[in-house]
Amino acid sequence: MSIAEDLSGQVSETEWQARTDLAAAYRLVDMFGWSDLLGTHLSARVPGEADQFLINPYGLLFEEITASSLIKVDEEGRVLSPTPYDVNPAGFVIHSAVHMAMPELTCVMHTHTSAGVGVATQKQGLLPLTQHALTVISSTGYHDYEGIATDPGERERLVRDLGDNRVLILRNHGLLTAGRTVGEAFVWLYRAERACRMQLAFQQSGAQAMEIPQEVQRTTIERNRLANSAKGHRPIGVKEWPALLRKLDRVDQGYRR
């Protein structure tokens, strides 16, 4: 049964590509076990539009989302496309903060995973205990919990705390990532989630930590910043995203409708 009118051929090629990528990201988030029933959101800017964005219909599971079912909204979260569904206002306050302040960041992702929230609840946050953590720490900020995010005034503080980073740990809440593409935002989320899982796994072992010396931490963070940049050998998402789409297509092509 279709859950939305088929929009392929009814929107521009660039918008359809953005819809397809974002719908794929929703399916991949569910595949990796990062979804939270109807909660959390992934959003993307409509190409060529300064104040139009795509976000999930509030009422569909991530595994049900298709390119056509994504809802188009403005910077205040007002619905611009025909749909029987609503948009969760708390979700778009968080996303619109980044979209409005940083137009170069076209995609924002937010999750409430056990590992992400587990680390976000720790006073020291993500610890520099693993190579994976240092990769993420090189591009991570922190935002203090202010309650359910329905206050538009929180936008300024979110943007301030994200700064030039691509990962924002929302204290007592979860993880947020942003990117110039859907692939970049998704791979940052993958890396952050994995680093959090490793930290919790170590902490649950009760073993004594083999700490990484401060100088090695500093050098590793600097190397990661270069390697992950456009000048580096592994710009985030460039190689991983096509591979992830191939993985998804082997098991589930329903997002392309």
Short description:
This protein has 257 residues and is of the alpha+beta class. The chain has one domain: Class II aldolase/adducin N-terminal domain (L-fuculose-1-phosphate Aldolase), CATH 3.40.225.10.
Please supply descriptive tags for the structure shown above.
alpha+beta, 257 residues, seven-stranded mixed β-sheet
Please tell me about this protein's structure.
By secondary structure, the chain is an alpha+beta fold. The protein has a single domain (13-247), classed as Class II aldolase/adducin N-terminal domain (L-fuculose-1-phosphate Aldolase). 41% of the residues lie in helices and 12% in strands. The chain has helices at 13-31, 89-101, 114-120, 131-137, 154-162, 182-205, 214-228, 240-251; strands at residues 41-45, 53-55, 71-73, 107-111, 140-143, 167-170, 174-179. Helix 2 (89-101) packs across helix 5, helix 4 (131-137) crosses helix 6 and helix 4 (131-137) packs across helix 7 (214-228). The relative contact order is 0.15.
Termini gap:
12 Å
> What is the string of helix and strand elements?
HEEEHEHHEHEEHHH
**CATH architecture assignment name:** 3-Layer(aba) Sandwich
- Strands ordered across the widest β-sheet: 3-2-1-4-7-6-5
Give the helix proportion (percent range): 40-55%
Per DSSP, what share of the residues sits in E-state strands of 2 or more residues?
5-15%
CATH level 1 class label:
Alpha Beta
Please tell me how large the radius of gyration is.
Answer: 18 Å
The CATH H-level superfamily is Class II aldolase/adducin N-terminal domain
**CATH topology, what is it called?**
L-fuculose-1-phosphate Aldolase
Main β-sheet, in a few words?
A: 7 strands, mixed
| Poorly predicted sequence stretches spanning 5 or more consecutive residues | none
What is the approximate shape?
globular
The count of strands amounts to 7
DSSP helical segment count: 8
Average pLDDT taken over every residue: 94
Structural class: alpha+beta
